[in-house]
Design goal:
316 residues, alpha/beta, globular, 2 domains, single chain, Rossmann fold, four-stranded antiparallel beta sheet, six-stranded mixed beta sheet, 11 helices, Alpha-Beta Plaits
Amino acid sequence: MALSAIADSGAAQEAVLTVEHLVKRYADFAAVNDVSFAIARGECFGLLGPNGAGKTTTLRCCLGLIAPDAGTIRLLGMPIPESAREARIRVGVVPQMDNLDPDFTVAENLRVYGRYFGIGEALLAERIPLLLAFAGLESRRQARLRTLSGGMKRRLTLARALINDPDLLILDEPTTGLDPQARHVMWDGLRQLLGQGKTILLTTHFMDEAERLATRLAVMDQGRLIACDQPRTLIDRYIEPQVVEVYGDEARAWADARGSALAERIEMTGETAFCYVRDPKPLLDSLDGQNGVRYLHRPANLEDLFLKLTGRELRD
């Protein structure tokens, strides 16, 4: 069932969130360093980056939970942090970790959260059935949280974030810990919201999630915003169009002996050589019948972009 009964029908194209030259320091460390972006009404804006890139600090500044050291933020036309309390009434947040109340049933979690926003009982009685249907939880209305699967809890957290009919929905890694089936159910729900004109700010470590949902995305690293555009535009701008992954015991030896002459760029990770090319035929011909290696040929994707811009080293 759609949420059209509570969706914003007057979606214009003005910026819902504008961030200009944002800086946040902790002692001598710049967690966010001169970051600027704007999110138009009705779009899904993805914010990507490795651990420690500054994504969470940026979100906390945008919500007025911490004060920036420099720069300006306008959320729904209001200055932040000065008017953060008023702006947050019109924002829904899905945090990384579920913070549902285990003492309440599914429906009670929605009702109690709605009261925080001053929503009256009559309006809650209208919205809760719609949100339960949206989350696929109609039959679990009176269930306790301990009886829900991880996917059900995540869908309930999303439904709860919609109780105030927000103008902006902030999703901080919304599908972390979910199995593939639950992730696809969550994606379907988010696509419904986008189709109804909702605005979404999404952080995620799943590149396929960002590529499926985001109309535009920004890549952050070491506190800076290093790229921002539509996903396919960024891929075309920074990455060769074809990738051949060569793996196996002899992959490194093959890359040193022959691959470097056939690929425009090679990146080695473990026993896999990632070969980036515009014309893959010569490279694929050289691999036919090659002992000790296997290969996978595919088009370049968002993960290739992410790894080129931020590196392949492990971040803690």
